Amino acid sequence: MHCNIFISTDILNLRGKLKWLPQLICLIFLLAPFSVSNACGPQPFSFHGYTFLNQNILFKKDKKANKKKAVETTPPVVAVFDQFYGNYFAKNDSVIINENIAEWEERYCGLVKKADLEFMVYKSDTTDLEILLTNMGSKSLQVPLRLRGNSFAEYVWENKCTENIEYLIFAKRCEVHVTAESSWEISRRNVPAMQHLIKTGRKAFNRTKSHYMRLRYAYQIIRLAHYAGLYEETLNLYDKLLPKIDKFESRYEESIIPWWIEGHRAGALLKRKRRAEASYLYAKIFRFCPSRRQSAYLSFSIQTDEEWADCLKLCQSDEERAMIYAIRASNPKSRAVEEMAAIYRLDPANPQLEPLLLQEIRKIERHLLGLKFNHRRKENKRRYGVPVAGIENYAIDLQEFVRKVRSETKVPRPNLWLITEGYLEFLAGDFYAAEKTFTEAARKVEDEVLKEQLDAFLLAMEIAKFDKPTSRVEDMAYAIMKENELYRRYPSFQSYLRDKMRYLYEEAGQDSKALLTYSNLQILQVNPVPNMVDELLAVLQKPERTQLERLLTERFSVSDLLDLKAIYMMGEGQMEAAAQFYARIPATEWSKYGEYNPFIENFHDLVNIDSSKDSLTQTVSLNRGDLINTLLELEFQAKGNPEKAPIYYYKLGLAHYNMSYFGYEWKAMDYFRSGTTWNKLDKSRRGAYPYWEYPLGNRENTDVSRALFFFEKARLMAKTSELKAKATFQAARCEQKLFFMSDLYQPPPCCNNIPLLPQEYLYNFDRLKNEFSETDFYEWIIEECQYFAAYARRGRAIDGRW
């Protein structure tokens, strides 16, 4: 038996090839299934579209084996990074290893274990191999201890396969020069050392008797020259070494090594600007060498019509010409009808046609499917340029080609072309023509996968034909969601149906139902738009709701909506109206909306207040309904009891300030507060501020004018200077916030300077200093409030600094 074993360390070179990873990622993104991103989801900037192509459509059922298998043996070009063939190339290193080990096992006739092969090829080091080689030359020395029990090591020791071990040692010495962590390391290759190894390898090549091992040496030598940037020498070495290898003895046609060599030859040709020759070789490598398909596809490079013509001239058969047309057509930016027509003329049964057809349909989907009701179409246009100009005309061109192919029935599966013809008609907006084509297809199609594909296209068209959000349409939409298997099997149906219903609701002026198609009540809790809350109340109180309405509103109740109405009215200062809404909520449910105590006296703007009791009257926390009634009662008592009115008004001022955006108990009148609002304070907004996660905006209760009114009333009616002083300071806090919300306010540019307040916002600071400087409170607040202390010491600000 000849010891024609080959050893490749090429898998270890993958790190050096990561330089093309960014392009690969881009290609994956362009050809991957369209992601569906919710308007308020965690990825608001991803492309928003739909696809209804069945990922199994390029497979047929092997009934005997009960397994799916590809329609053809060579994966289609477009499927290199495509979902249709799953992760065919996701683990290119494993493809190389599998090819390598498979050939190795075959050369050893299966007499060595696969795990032992892998260890020796990929994990052993040069020292192990040198000791093994030395021991092979001795009659007394055995297999080295570290390799003992390894079936490969023991086999070559017993059969004295010295040429194979010599080659493996040489390959491992080459390894350091043909791997790189980064492009920086590539630029720093040790060319003189690589040239020395080339000379060493040529000597070994000449003295090696095994023609298969000569083939392996040729690969290592040519690879070294390529990576050293010696491109002319790479080509010369190819011409000199390959003729010295007997193709019969080396079993050249059965090996993957010639294709690996051709890859380096093609790379050298490409560097010498001989793109036509290089691309022709890359097309052949793609076709015949799975472990090099990825790099061959990425390296194919034709830049001019002249180069394209030259590349075609190099082809030896129509099959080869069809392959390079397929590679050019698979470019994500191509409009491939012309190339598909050329492939069809050359070889109507060519296996590349079907995946290219689906690639082009997916492009049409990306640009036209659901365009009218895709709520993010403007963002798609701005960010991705979708749809592009002229896509409608291209869709018509593709239709005509598909119709021609289908009618001539030269392709293996004319029914696939028939149902895609109908789908293209549907995408172009011709529902009448699409229905006729789909009806014809329903009579002819027998293949189960194609039947499912047809049904998916029909369902997409059924949804697209929804015209108005009538009860019938809502019932149909609900039935699709709950009963249709295709709705669950095709991920895009969820966003497609949701967006369609949202569009219909918006067109009909039913904004609240439109909101619930893609979100939930939280959006309204953040900004309880009155008319939308009223719409939902009307839906919940209907004698009979459709199933879809029940589904949209199943997570909240009438009480939840009445609570939102009350919160809105509280923010508007309409406590009587808020009380009326809470009166409609069963009192037993009031506590589920939280408990609050906004009456705690404080003189600092803090996020949290530790105490749970009111420092003035020792009242405990109240649910929102009781809080509203307490505020109304305080105001009523203040009007009827002049003696206690000052303290009541002061408490009302505290409550309204503390329940505002600036207070610790903001949750009493709001479900959400954002710190980013501080940079957008603007009185003209009436409390609604943009927020990326909430399409209706974030309503903040920033108006403290009502609190200011109550503090002023407390000061005017107070009998003691101490209460007057406290009310004055609290009023000054309100004035400060009103200034921050005015057009006059500009944040300090740097240095944490205290902002300058204009005179019209200093009335109460002036009053506190001028009228109440003799009070105990004044002395205390000077120590507690640095802002007021700076003002009191210096008076008016100068140049923005106190």
Q: What's the end-to-end separation, in Å?
A: 97 Å
Radius of gyration: 39 Å
Biggest sheet layout: 2 strands, antiparallel
Number of strands: 6
Report the helical percentage. Answer: 55-70%
Q: What is the overall pLDDT average?
A: 85
Description:
With 802 residues, the chain is mostly helical. The protein contains 38 helices and six strands. The protein is elongated, with a radius of gyration of 39 Å. The relative contact order is 0.06.
Brief description of this entry?
The chain is mostly helical. Helix content is 57%, strand content 3%. It starts with 20 loop residues before the first helix and ends in an 8-residue tail after the last helix.
Q: What features would you highlight for this structure?
A:
57% helix; two-stranded antiparallel ribbon; disordered C terminus; 802 residues; 38 helices; mainly alpha; two-stranded antiparallel sheet
Task: Give a topology summary.
Layout (H helix, E strand, L loop, with lengths): L20 H11 L27 E4 L4 E4 L21 H16 L6 H10 L2 H11 L14 H9 L2 H17 L4 H4 L4 H17 L3 H17 L3 H11 L15 H15 L3 H14 L4 H7 L5 H10 L3 H12 L7 H10 L6 H16 L8 H8 L6 H18 L5 H14 L3 H14 L3 H17 L6 H13 L1 H5 L2 H16 L3 H8 L3 H5 L3 H11 L6 H6 L5 H14 L3 H9 L11 E2 L25 E2 H17 L4 H14 L29 E4 L2 E6 L5 H13 L3 H20 L22 H9 L4 H9 L1 H9 L8
